[in-house]
Amino acid sequence: MAFSPRYLIATLVATCLYVINTATADDFHRNRLSFADDFQTNCLSLMPELYIRNSTRTVLEYVPAGTNLTFPDNVASCSRPSQVVSSDICRLALSIPTSNRSSITFEAWLPRNWTGRFLGTGNGGIDGCIRYEDLAYGSSQGFATVGSNNGHNGTTAIAMLNNYDVTIDFAWRSLHTMVTSGKTLTKEFYHKSPSKSYYIGCSLGGRQGIKAAEMFPHDFDGIVAGSPALDFNNLYSWRASFFPITGSVNSSNFITPSQWSTLIHDEILKQCDGLDGVLDGIIEDPTICDFRPEAIMCSSSTNATATNCLTPTQVEIVRRIFSPFYGEDGQLIYPAMQPGSEIYAVQKLYAGAPFSYSDDWFKYVVYSNPYWNASNFNIKDAAAAEALNPGDIRTWPSSLATFQSTGGKIISFHGQQDNQITSFNTPRYYNYLLRGMQKTTSELDEFFRFFRISGMYHCNSGPGAWVVGQGGGASAEGIPFAPQNNVLAALVAWVENGAAPDTITGTKFKNDDPTQGISFQRSHCRYPLRNSYLGGNFSLPESWACLPMGTLAH
Ligand SMILES: *[C@@H]1O[C@H](CO)[C@@H](O)[C@H](O)[C@H]1NC(C)=O
Ligand SMILES: *[C@@H]1O[C@H](CO)[C@@H](O)[C@H](O)[C@H]1NC(C)=O
Ligand SMILES: *[C@@H]1O[C@H](CO)[C@@H](O)[C@H](O)[C@H]1NC(C)=O
Ligand SMILES: *[C@@H]1O[C@H](CO)[C@@H](O)[C@H](O)[C@H]1NC(C)=O
Ligand SMILES: *[C@@H]1O[C@H](CO)[C@@H](O)[C@H](O)[C@H]1NC(C)=O
Ligand SMILES: *[C@@H]1O[C@H](CO)[C@@H](O)[C@H](O)[C@H]1NC(C)=O
Ligand SMILES: *[C@@H]1O[C@H](CO)[C@@H](O)[C@H](O)[C@H]1NC(C)=O
Ligand SMILES: *[C@@H]1O[C@H](CO)[C@@H](O)[C@H](O)[C@H]1NC(C)=O
Ligand SMILES: *[C@@H]1O[C@H](CO)[C@@H](O)[C@H](O)[C@H]1NC(C)=O
Ligand SMILES: [Ca+2]
């Protein structure tokens, strides 16, 4: 077989390139290994328990990038048996007492490639669960990242029964203990204090962030507070209010999941999807969706077994669900559920069973009575919870002046199809804070910006462009860690360079799978601006503009 000269030259060049490449790779590998040894040695020789009073060490290990960590001791209800770690870290865990009858489990993931930044992570629901995906996310972006179990393990509140110290940990003390301990250990490990301190959390975690800004304004320079569980006592009462409205699954007018997710949701889209100018299954601004359920009521001449319409009683149930929740004195307890969230809301809030977080809260915290019956919940219970305000968990500060004066910045966001915390509550808080601090919108926006994320359910997922870097896992995968696309990167740019975000561009991946490519992107506006369709391809961000309410788009 004869080879052409051209082939031989090509082969020779390829071989030389291969040799050069191999040498480079070997050198790189060797350098990396010797560096790894230092980092690893420093990690394993750290004695974290010496720096945190009365703490007990439970983990100290060097974890190389690519490791699939497993957590055999983590309670099953946290649903976090393992976590892939994408950067080299020093991992340590401590048990830290917070009183003589309470303690927190603390974790720090300290990356080899440290940017000098510190990141605290929050919790969710009524848990008790370290968000390992957020520890992996933060450490992979070079933050010394810490998390805690918020004072108890698992997804129930039973540990708070007759132990007010566990409730205090849950309300604020676990997070603050985690931050002070985390900063101390970061300094011991790197021999340098963190340059800037950040926080990221959603839902309960969003509330934790606002609480920290209120109570410990020096803990963080920047806070991402997603879908925040603000006005916590009233939120838990609002959630408890649905079961008496829907009745139990076998009650005569119970609205079934399929009625919610097809009949009712479809009618909501029919009435409101087009308000933003585009029929895409996404209601950009649900505050202007005045849903009329009578449109799908069965008429008296309809066959009584028909499933494509609602009885008058069911229409009334739907009306109550989409109405604000008022107390004994006629004062607002919590704003209405926004239309658009029904497909997922039916799984919990409208499931015809007590909502477990609220049930736990009243049983184990408000009344210390495990036999309390959620069927009989009413506005007197709401008043009792609000008056008790366990652990001062409310989180509804009328001013964050001290936090602002330290240069602190807050980015809040809320999914406009949130199925667990009505997204109408965050504009309510924005306006409350604005009144409390007596600021104009542009003045408040100097340190507190709120973005409405259309088509996003509770903290993540949904039909909209919901991937905005709001947490680890799917919430940050596949998009660059860049201010325009990622709320945490936007916060860093704001705190460190004064570059405040005007919009956040969210991404929707095909089937929510980054490997399949981007389906579309949309830039989300900061409240009170609204996303308005200008024309053109609605899958492109530039076909939309953030305009004040009442402005004509074109
Ligand atoms: C730490 O332990 C000491 C002795 O064991 C005890 O006196 C002290 O109260 C503990 N401090 C805390 C914060 O638990
Ligand atoms: C990590 O390990 C767990 C438990 O062995 C396994 O279930 C999981 O699939 C692994 N994850 C990956 C990405 O390999
Ligand atoms: C919580 O679980 C961890 C293991 O993940 C354990 O070390 C700790 O003791 C538990 N804390 C409580 C309060 O039960
Ligand atoms: C725990 O500390 C409290 C004060 O914070 C004290 O009243 C109580 O007696 C202590 N209990 C025990 C068992 O030491
Ligand atoms: C370390 O982080 C910097 C910036 O954060 C990045 O540019 C660099 O590629 C990272 N290096 C490694 C080895 O990950
Ligand atoms: C509802 O009725 C079904 C069928 O009769 C029964 O199996 C189920 O236990 C009932 N559920 C409740 C909550 O009563
Ligand atoms: C009502 O609908 C059911 C089921 O679709 C059907 O079997 C029945 O014949 C209908 N009755 C009348 C009066 O149309
Ligand atoms: C709760 O109260 C309802 C209504 O009064 C009653 O039907 C139900 O049996 C009670 N449940 C329990 C567990 O006592
Ligand atoms: C609209 O933009 C999307 C996203 O870039 C693209 O996939 C689609 O082909 C465009 N549609 C038209 C009609 O140009
Ligand atoms: Ca639409």
Automatic annotation (TrEMBL):
<protein>
    <submittedName>
        <fullName>Tannase/feruloyl esterase</fullName>
    </submittedName>
</protein>
